[in-house]
Each structure stands twice: as C-alpha cells, then as structure tokens.
Write a structure and sequence with these properties.
globular, 35% strand, 6 strands, five-stranded mixed beta barrel, 136 residues
Length: 136
C-alpha cells in the first residue's frame, strides 16, 4: 500500500512540475500546428524549422492514416493533413502505450504533443518521439 501511495505522489509531482502542466497553469496556450504547417516548415526552410522545432515538445494535429508498430517495435501513429494527404507526421508513443493504439481510428482527427526529432533522413515525414495524446 505504501509503495502505491508513493508511486501516485511521484506521478502527480512529475505532472505538476512538467512544462505542459506549467503552461496550462499559467494560462499560456501552446500553439497547435497542423501536419501541413510542420511539413512545409521543414520542406521550405529546413534550417529555420530545425532551430524552431527540433528538440522541443510541440503540439500538433492531423488525421490518422495508420497505427501500429514501427520498424523498432515501438507504437507509432502516422498522421496527415487529410484522409488522402501526402504530407506525413510519425508520432512514436512510449512502449507502455501499445494498447492505446486501438483507440486511434484511421480517418479521425487527433491532437498530440511530442518531442520533435526533425524530418526523417529519407524526407518522407516529420518525426516525433515521446508522443502524448491531447484529444480530438
């Protein structure tokens, strides 16, 4: 019982001390970027986009195209700007969130935040790690 209580207190402290909670508490609304905005930023001015986004937690939204394991067996959701879109964002969720993949239906719009890693080497998508769902 003691370890459960201690774990709960640590989890709550981690949330309230996180940048996301601090931003919400201060009333600062973090911008939410569309898949198209992110893609075009990296495509049109890669150096500026790298400085603006890479290594930072960014909120974004798009339409889910697919969800499943990545090539590294991590839970991944691929989003675009529309159901038949040709601009992509890959959102890698933490491994314990594999069971949550079934909640994200193809064709539905969702909002996430994640740590931006930049454009993939092959230039096909903008990559986010440590993804967290923020809602529809």
């Amino acid at each position: 019982m003691h370890s459960i209580l201690q774990g709960t207190i640590i989890a709550l402290a981690a949330f309230f001390l996180s940048p996301v909670a601090a931003s919400a508490a201060s009333g600062d609304a973090e911008p939410v970027y569309s898949v198209r905005e992110l893609w075009e930023a990296f495509e049109n001015n890669p150096d500026k986009a790298h400085k603006s986004f890479t290594g930072k937690r960014i909120a974004f939204e798009g339409v889910v195209l697919s969800s499943g394991p990545s090539v590294y067996a991590t839970p991944m959701i691929v989003l675009s700007d529309r159901k038949d879109g040709d601009r992509y964002v890959a959102c890698i969720l933490p491994r314990p969130d594999f069971f949550k993949l079934r909640d994200y239906k193809a064709g539905n719009r969702y909002r996430f935040s994640g740590l931006c890693r930049g454009m993939t080497f092959d230039g096909t998508m903008v990559l986010f790690k440590e993804g967290m769902a923020m809602g529809h």
